[in-house]
Amino acid sequence: MLTAVIARRSTPTALRALSTWSAVPAGPPDPILGVTEAFKADKDPRKINLGVGAYRDENGKPYVLTSVQKAEELVAASKPDKEYLPITGLAEFTKNAAKLAYGAESAPLKQGAIAVTQSISGTGALRIGGAFIGRHYPKAKVIYLPTPSWGNHTPIFRDSGLEVRGYRYFDKSTVGLDFEGMKADLKAAPEHSIVLLHACAHNPTGIDPTHAQWKEISDLVKEKNLFPFFDMAYQGFATGSISNDAFAVRHFVAEGHQVALAQSFAKNMGLYGERVGAFSLVTADPEEKARVDSQLKIVIRPMYSNPPLHGARIANAILSDAALYAEWETEVKSMADRIISMRETLYNTLTHDLKTPGEWGHIKSQIGMFSFTGLTAPQTKALAEKAHVYMTADGRISMAGLNSKNIEHFATSVDAAVRGNL
Ligand code: KET
């Protein structure tokens, strides 16, 4: 009897049943990073990855900016130590990051009223912001996200303990901004709600409000006492200009809004895996800033203690040296320009050469790293399985993944998918 029990227990199934984690269900792959995994597993030489928003050069290769290479050499030559950074990171870097976003002339910056901390790139900045708001925001902790938004926003804020709701943003029928819907939803939101705004190059739609529309949004946010939280992951990628792309943030601050801001240097400096970012809050004065700083430290210390050194040193070397900064600005512009030229080529190939059914004007008019193509989930699935072309299931493509060598395979595959011929 006992031997029978032991025998049964020692079968692999019985062993599995005894595991502590036997009830953990398998989760779905990440909607964006999972695409890279599927792409890597594909052995076809024609494969194209348009999933993750990471810049690729004309040869489809990851691109290390020349300014970054030079900055890295400067950092290495200074033979820096490997001591821990303070909890809020490299002070010189955070000062320069804030200057980049808010502008050197920003009143709260000059007054010393902006609390800023280094973060584990943009995601970490959003998460610190979520946690800080979760703990200290004195009103209802409800955050409104644009529909649609970057797929990670909902889990970031939900895991931070905030209630996540949506406001209208994208109008399918015009493939443009649903400005009236956006305003109506923000007007209907309870006073003091938090509203997440993409500072520029909205992900995934590639559609930004105009300057005039930003002004209206700022007025509405003021009227309703909403709390604006900007996510700025693509400064420079929208128009090729660092200061143009900061228009919304700078306008809101000039209008007296106390904004929260998440910055990423992943895209504009190509520092993806170095995880360089910053989170900041505009406060009333230096005394309030000091109190906010102290609480940011209390939020961060149990999360990861203090941030990594290397990437912040690189970014800071660029931001603090006039010649390197100028070189970097030119490189940002050239990345943005290559993306714009791919938009032109793709639009021309689909409309003029292939006469692909449908309206493709949005490929040219959308802004930033992505194009929200309008391809359906079954079409994106067929494109991956039959043509080895990978993108997110919502039909978003990272324009930087296209180049003169692969654009024809991409366009003919899209044409076939749209015609149902794949
Ligand atoms: N905000 C937005 C809007 C965003 O698109 C990203 C990244 C981030 C923040 C965070 O990036 P980080 O690397 O933490 O600085 N988006 C691309 C990569 C990803 O999903 O992680 C993407 O959408 O492909």
From TrEMBL:
One of its GO terms (cellular component) is mitochondrion. InterPro entries: Aminotransferase_I/II_large, Asp_trans, NHTrfase_class1_PyrdxlP-BS, PyrdxlP-dep_Trfase, PyrdxlP-dep_Trfase_major, PyrdxlP-dep_Trfase_small. CDD domains: AAT_like. It comes from the Eukaryota. Its EC number is 2.6.1.1. Keywords: Aminotransferase, Pyridoxal phosphate, Transferase. Homodimer. This is Aspartate aminotransferase. It comes from Dendrothele bispora (strain CBS 962.96).
